[in-house]
Amino acid sequence: MKVLVLASNGQTGSLVAQELVALGHQVTGLGRGDNRNSFLTSYLQQDLLDLTAEQVKDFDAVVSAFGVLNPELFPMYKQVATHLTSILANSDTKLYVVGGAGSLVVDPASGARLFDTPDFPADYQGLARAHAEQLLVVRQSATNWVYVHPAADFDENGAKTGNVVIGGADFAVNKAGESYISYADYAHELASLVSANKFSRVQLSFRQGDAK
Protein backbone atom coordinates (compact mmCIF):
# COMPACT_ATOMS: atom_id res chain seq x y z
CA MET A 1 0.00 0.00 0.00
CA LYS A 2 0.96 3.62 -0.51
CA VAL A 3 0.22 5.60 2.64
CA LEU A 4 0.57 9.31 3.39
CA VAL A 5 1.14 10.19 7.05
CA LEU A 6 0.36 13.80 7.93
CA ALA A 7 2.37 15.40 10.75
CA SER A 8 4.92 12.61 10.38
CA ASN A 9 7.48 14.56 12.41
CA GLY A 10 5.24 14.49 15.47
CA GLN A 11 5.52 11.73 18.04
CA THR A 12 2.34 9.88 17.09
CA GLY A 13 2.79 10.40 13.35
CA SER A 14 6.40 9.26 13.46
CA LEU A 15 5.52 6.07 15.34
CA VAL A 16 2.63 5.26 13.00
CA ALA A 17 4.83 5.84 9.94
CA GLN A 18 7.56 3.60 11.37
CA GLU A 19 5.05 0.82 12.07
CA LEU A 20 3.66 1.09 8.53
CA VAL A 21 7.15 0.83 7.05
CA ALA A 22 7.78 -2.26 9.19
CA LEU A 23 4.67 -3.81 7.63
CA GLY A 24 6.15 -3.31 4.18
CA HIS A 25 4.18 -0.29 2.98
CA GLN A 26 5.45 2.68 0.96
CA VAL A 27 5.12 5.57 3.37
CA THR A 28 5.28 9.26 2.50
CA GLY A 29 5.47 11.73 5.34
CA LEU A 30 4.31 15.34 5.43
CA GLY A 31 5.37 18.18 7.68
CA ARG A 32 6.25 21.85 7.69
CA GLY A 33 9.81 21.29 8.86
CA ASP A 34 12.66 19.17 7.57
CA ASN A 35 12.10 15.42 7.54
CA ARG A 36 13.22 13.82 10.80
CA ASN A 37 12.60 10.22 9.74
CA SER A 38 15.10 8.57 7.40
CA PHE A 39 12.95 5.43 7.15
CA LEU A 40 10.26 7.17 5.07
CA THR A 41 9.91 6.31 1.37
CA SER A 42 9.46 10.01 0.54
CA TYR A 43 8.58 13.28 2.22
CA LEU A 44 6.48 16.36 1.43
CA GLN A 45 7.66 19.51 3.17
CA GLN A 46 4.64 21.80 3.09
CA ASP A 47 1.70 23.10 5.06
CA LEU A 48 -1.01 20.49 5.51
CA LEU A 49 -3.66 22.98 4.42
CA ASP A 50 -1.89 23.38 1.07
CA LEU A 51 -2.31 19.69 0.27
CA THR A 52 -4.30 19.15 -2.93
CA ALA A 53 -6.59 16.46 -4.30
CA GLU A 54 -4.04 15.83 -7.04
CA GLN A 55 -1.34 15.10 -4.46
CA VAL A 56 -3.41 12.55 -2.56
CA LYS A 57 -5.20 10.75 -5.40
CA ASP A 58 -2.63 7.96 -5.78
CA PHE A 59 -2.47 7.02 -2.09
CA ASP A 60 -4.41 4.06 -0.74
CA ALA A 61 -4.69 5.72 2.66
CA VAL A 62 -4.03 9.02 4.39
CA VAL A 63 -3.34 9.04 8.13
CA SER A 64 -3.88 12.39 9.84
CA ALA A 65 -1.85 12.60 13.04
CA PHE A 66 -2.37 16.36 13.20
CA GLY A 67 -2.48 17.74 16.71
CA VAL A 68 -1.87 21.00 18.57
CA LEU A 69 -1.96 21.83 22.28
CA ASN A 70 -2.01 25.64 22.06
CA PRO A 71 -5.61 26.74 22.77
CA GLU A 72 -5.28 29.56 20.25
CA LEU A 73 -4.79 26.92 17.55
CA PHE A 74 -7.66 24.61 18.55
CA PRO A 75 -9.87 25.89 15.67
CA MET A 76 -7.37 24.21 13.35
CA TYR A 77 -8.76 20.78 14.24
CA LYS A 78 -11.99 21.65 12.44
CA GLN A 79 -10.15 23.54 9.70
CA VAL A 80 -7.83 20.63 8.94
CA ALA A 81 -10.68 18.11 9.01
CA THR A 82 -12.70 20.28 6.63
CA HIS A 83 -9.79 20.56 4.22
CA LEU A 84 -8.92 16.86 4.25
CA THR A 85 -12.49 15.67 3.82
CA SER A 86 -12.87 18.13 0.95
CA ILE A 87 -9.87 16.94 -1.06
CA LEU A 88 -10.64 13.27 -0.32
CA ALA A 89 -14.41 13.44 -0.90
CA ASN A 90 -15.84 10.65 -3.06
CA SER A 91 -12.39 9.16 -3.66
CA ASP A 92 -11.06 5.64 -3.09
CA THR A 93 -8.42 6.91 -0.66
CA LYS A 94 -9.30 6.10 2.95
CA LEU A 95 -8.79 8.73 5.65
CA TYR A 96 -7.68 7.62 9.12
CA VAL A 97 -7.85 10.29 11.82
CA VAL A 98 -6.04 10.21 15.16
CA GLY A 99 -8.79 11.48 17.46
CA GLY A 100 -9.31 12.27 21.12
CA ALA A 101 -10.77 10.38 24.06
CA GLY A 102 -13.07 13.20 25.16
CA SER A 103 -15.59 12.40 22.42
CA LEU A 104 -16.09 8.81 23.55
CA VAL A 105 -19.70 8.19 24.57
CA VAL A 106 -20.37 7.48 28.26
CA ASP A 107 -24.18 7.27 28.02
CA PRO A 108 -25.56 5.95 24.72
CA ALA A 109 -29.12 6.84 25.73
CA SER A 110 -28.41 10.55 26.12
CA GLY A 111 -25.37 10.73 23.86
CA ALA A 112 -23.30 12.24 26.67
CA ARG A 113 -19.58 12.15 25.99
CA LEU A 114 -16.63 11.87 28.33
CA PHE A 115 -16.02 15.63 28.27
CA ASP A 116 -19.65 16.20 29.32
CA THR A 117 -19.06 14.49 32.67
CA PRO A 118 -18.45 16.61 35.80
CA ASP A 119 -15.12 14.93 36.56
CA PHE A 120 -13.59 15.69 33.17
CA PRO A 121 -10.54 17.97 33.74
CA ALA A 122 -11.29 21.61 32.97
CA ASP A 123 -7.84 22.05 31.46
CA TYR A 124 -8.71 19.58 28.70
CA GLN A 125 -12.18 20.90 27.86
CA GLY A 126 -10.98 23.09 25.01
CA LEU A 127 -8.99 20.30 23.38
CA ALA A 128 -11.82 17.80 23.81
CA ARG A 129 -14.34 20.14 22.21
CA ALA A 130 -11.94 20.81 19.33
CA HIS A 131 -11.71 17.06 18.78
CA ALA A 132 -15.52 16.84 18.89
CA GLU A 133 -15.78 19.45 16.13
CA GLN A 134 -13.17 17.53 14.13
CA LEU A 135 -15.15 14.32 14.53
CA LEU A 136 -18.41 15.96 13.45
CA VAL A 137 -16.82 17.24 10.23
CA VAL A 138 -15.40 13.80 9.46
CA ARG A 139 -18.66 11.97 10.20
CA GLN A 140 -20.70 14.29 8.00
CA SER A 141 -18.29 14.09 5.07
CA ALA A 142 -18.40 12.14 1.82
CA THR A 143 -15.03 10.64 2.70
CA ASN A 144 -14.17 6.99 3.28
CA TRP A 145 -13.06 7.57 6.88
CA VAL A 146 -12.02 5.78 10.09
CA TYR A 147 -11.75 7.83 13.29
CA VAL A 148 -9.60 6.26 16.01
CA HIS A 149 -9.94 7.40 19.64
CA PRO A 150 -7.14 6.72 22.12
CA ALA A 151 -7.90 5.84 25.73
CA ALA A 152 -8.33 8.63 28.28
CA ASP A 153 -4.77 8.14 29.55
CA PHE A 154 -2.72 8.43 26.35
CA ASP A 155 0.85 7.83 27.52
CA GLU A 156 3.67 9.06 25.29
CA ASN A 157 6.29 7.22 27.35
CA GLY A 158 4.48 3.90 27.82
CA ALA A 159 5.78 0.57 26.59
CA LYS A 160 4.62 -1.36 23.55
CA THR A 161 2.77 -4.31 25.07
CA GLY A 162 0.55 -5.69 22.32
CA ASN A 163 -2.22 -5.99 24.92
CA VAL A 164 -4.82 -3.86 23.16
CA VAL A 165 -8.61 -4.02 23.02
CA ILE A 166 -10.30 -2.50 19.97
CA GLY A 167 -13.65 -0.96 20.79
CA GLY A 168 -16.15 1.38 19.22
CA ALA A 169 -17.38 4.87 20.05
CA ASP A 170 -18.31 4.05 23.67
CA PHE A 171 -15.97 4.76 26.58
CA ALA A 172 -14.71 1.59 28.27
CA VAL A 173 -12.19 0.53 30.90
CA ASN A 174 -10.42 -2.69 31.84
CA LYS A 175 -11.13 -4.71 34.99
CA ALA A 176 -8.86 -2.42 36.97
CA GLY A 177 -11.01 0.55 35.96
CA GLU A 178 -8.32 1.97 33.71
CA SER A 179 -8.66 3.64 30.33
CA TYR A 180 -5.04 3.57 29.18
CA ILE A 181 -3.02 3.19 25.99
CA SER A 182 0.61 3.97 25.19
CA TYR A 183 1.57 5.87 22.05
CA ALA A 184 3.57 2.81 21.02
CA ASP A 185 0.61 0.43 21.25
CA TYR A 186 -1.73 2.94 19.61
CA ALA A 187 0.65 3.41 16.67
CA HIS A 188 1.09 -0.33 16.19
CA GLU A 189 -2.65 -0.99 16.22
CA LEU A 190 -3.40 1.91 13.89
CA ALA A 191 -0.80 0.73 11.39
CA SER A 192 -2.28 -2.78 11.56
CA LEU A 193 -5.74 -1.29 11.00
CA VAL A 194 -4.57 0.57 7.90
CA SER A 195 -2.87 -2.55 6.60
CA ALA A 196 -5.94 -4.76 7.10
CA ASN A 197 -8.24 -2.22 5.43
CA LYS A 198 -11.40 -3.78 6.90
CA PHE A 199 -13.24 -0.78 8.34
CA SER A 200 -15.01 2.17 6.74
CA ARG A 201 -16.99 5.14 8.07
CA VAL A 202 -16.69 4.04 11.68
CA GLN A 203 -15.38 5.24 15.03
CA LEU A 204 -12.97 2.89 16.77
CA SER A 205 -11.08 3.12 20.04
CA PHE A 206 -7.93 1.54 21.46
CA ARG A 207 -7.29 0.78 25.12
CA GLN A 208 -5.04 -1.58 27.04
CA GLY A 209 -6.68 -4.84 28.06
CA ASP A 210 -6.66 -6.61 31.40
CA ALA A 211 -3.34 -7.52 32.99
CA LYS A 212 -2.05 -10.89 31.84
TrEMBL record:
A single Gene Ontology MF term assigned here is:
oxidoreductase activity, acting on the CH-NH group of donors, NAD or NADP as acceptor
Q: Which Pfam families match?
A: NAD_binding_10
Span of domain NAD(P)-binding: 9-194
The record's listing under PANTHER family reads: FLAVIN REDUCTASE (NADPH)
The protein's name is: NAD(P)-binding domain-containing protein
Protein species of origin: Psittacicella hinzii
Lineage of the species this protein comes from = Bacteria, Pseudomonadati, Pseudomonadota, Gammaproteobacteria, Pasteurellales
